[in-house]
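Researcher: Next sequence.
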Amino acid sequence: MSHANHRPVALSVAGFDPSGASGVLADLKTFSAHDCYGVAAVTTLTVQNTRETRKISPVDSNLLRMQMQMLWDDIEVAGVKVGLLGNRKNMDAVAESLEARRETPVVADPVLRSSNGVEFLTEPELKHFKRLFFPRVDVLTPNAEEASRLLGVPVATLEDMKAAAKLLHEEGVRRVVITGGHLEKPADVFYEGQDLEVFPGLRAESQNHGTGCTFSSAVLANLITGRAARESIVLAKAYLSQAIARAYPIGAGRGPLNHLFRFGEAPVRLPPPEAVHEEPLHR
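Model: Next structure:
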């Protein structure tokens, strides 16, 4: 599957960020870095740069539906990454398209607000997202803030993240990884119904945005190149750490990661993370 003449195709269904730091442009670069071919269906147009998001404009849902259908009709898509959807009609269009392809792996990054605080979904739209996508996605990748909003409970500590992962699974999510880059000792929590797993991370004072988009698209890329979910998450974390470490400034605000660091650059030597205690699930 990794040969140049047979690269798996990954579909990004997400918004367009003119700065290239997030959305479909970040996803496509991440797919390329993982030896996948990326295609995209754009859900929203945004007015943003590295400093702020000023406006988002969802595309017409029929146009979105047509974008996806044209790709399905012509290309063998190996997996789908779902990001910012924009509104309820676009959620319906994407869910309908995915329903007809139940065997296609889906990784969803629940993009709920911009880095400067612009809310992307109303509470009714959020509930609609949960109803449509929780039963359908193979991996859900919220950060702690997004998990908090999805569940309506505070998610701030590592213990909160563990409880939230279980709750999201109980609400129908097959596999969930909650990212905790905000913690004093960063860690991500993975749960798929058995034991909770805690993956330690590294403290990185990142001044970038698009980390969530990049992580979720890296998870998908690893899945469709033959890795199991757990391994895909571990590899995606390692890739994200390097993309942050190799980032260079673009603009005056929170710029992009270096998604393509693998092309001609030596990896940065990162110190090993401190171990985080892992607890089995007591049932």
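Model: The helical segments are 23-33, 61-74, 88-99, 123-133, 144-151, 158-170, 211-224, 229-245. The chain has a mean pLDDT of 90.
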